Amino acid sequence: MSLLLRNALLLDVTTGEYAEGDLRCEDGRIVEAGPGLAAPEGTRVVDVAGASVVPGLIDAHVHVTAASADLGSLGSMSPSYVAAHSARIMSQMLDRGFTTVRDASGADFGLADAQAEGLVRGPRLLFCGKGLSQTGGHADFRGRGVNQQDDHPCCAGVGRVADGVDAVRAAARDELRKGAHHIKVMASGGVASPTDRIDSTQYSMDELRAIVEEAAAANRYVAAHAYTARAVNRALEAGVRSIEHGNLIDDSSVELFLEQDAYLVPTLVTYWALKEEGMAFGLPESSWRKVDDVLGAGLLALERAARGGVRLVYGTDLLGGMHRHQNHEFRLRGEVQQPLDVLRAATVNAAELVGMAGEIGTLSVGAHADLLVLDGDPLRDIGVLAEPERIRHIVQAGEVVSA
């Protein structure tokens, strides 16, 4: 199948420069770009009349199985019921312009295969399977009075509990066996978990290093949930490639990000949404009370990291009915960053993080033909990307999937 976009303003997100011309896609890839391109027989031609064209967006921190903000309830739900919710969530993500997403625990090879085969409409899905948690950690959703831990591999939960170097090695190897693109580890306390403190550190350094070693052996990497500077710094020192959230980092964290060549994936919008709507969508009150611990610090952490030169990636971490706010992250980041820097976080930076530089997040010839035609210039107003209704066309694998 061939698609030709005529009269476009094609954005190179690396340089921040537009080029006037046409763009042709064939067999799911970008094959030509330039003025006055010929349209082979059978090509669908769309004249975009001078509209801005940008790469398809990448959200590097989602939970497509999070049908509810009560993550602890997912494990008791039927996997087929959760899969049905996931199909809806993924389809709506695509309609918001996200052509690739990195799931940060919950999704598995079944959903990824279903999307790749066209059984589920949605973004390309890069999954980690179940996140690794210590007993009493961020993915241990037992209340204080519950003793038994059910980690059945077919349950729809987002995490698995493993303690000790041998156990975490086995757990990491098991997720890699199932095709995980990365390993997720809970390196600090969190909002959604019932028994830990946000300011706690989780896993020993030996356990963290063992997980990193197993991922590296499989040519994969580790993403770590962490909030405080203490937790973030431990994870970075252990060799983790990306820090998720990082709301409470300090200057020593910034230095370690640069030293370790690591990425930060802030998720500002989820705290805003959890505070406003979390309990309405299933977040337990005990978790809702934790939100204030990280809500106000997120923008300051983003500003600190951006000023220090940390490589930043777009993430949202929304749950349940709050997924609809996915694009609002653009507006929040725009409060402290320039529009081009925010757009890079959702394109080229994210592509580099997930090991797909040159394949996604770019309009370069040879890349996957995932792109957006916009009603407005996102370099002048990042709000163009914060409002899905201003996306005129969504192209995925060279096919117009939303118009």
Automatic annotation (TrEMBL):
Domain of life according to the entry: Bacteria
Keywords linked to the UniProt accession: Hydrolase
Pfam families the UniProt entry points to: Amidohydro_1
Molecular-function annotations in GO: hydrolase activity, acting on carbon-nitrogen (but not peptide) bonds
InterPro entries associated with the record: Amidohydro-rel, Metal-dep_hydrolase_composite, Metal_Hydrolase, Metallo-dep_Hydrolase, OTAase-like
Domain Amidohydrolase-related intervals: 53-401
CDD domains on file: Met_dep_hydrolase_A (cd01299)
UniProt entry tagged with the keyword Hydrolase: yes
PANTHER family: ALPHA-D-RIBOSE 1-METHYLPHOSPHONATE 5-TRIPHOSPHATE DIPHOSPHATASE
Protein known as: Imidazolonepropionase-like amidohydrolase
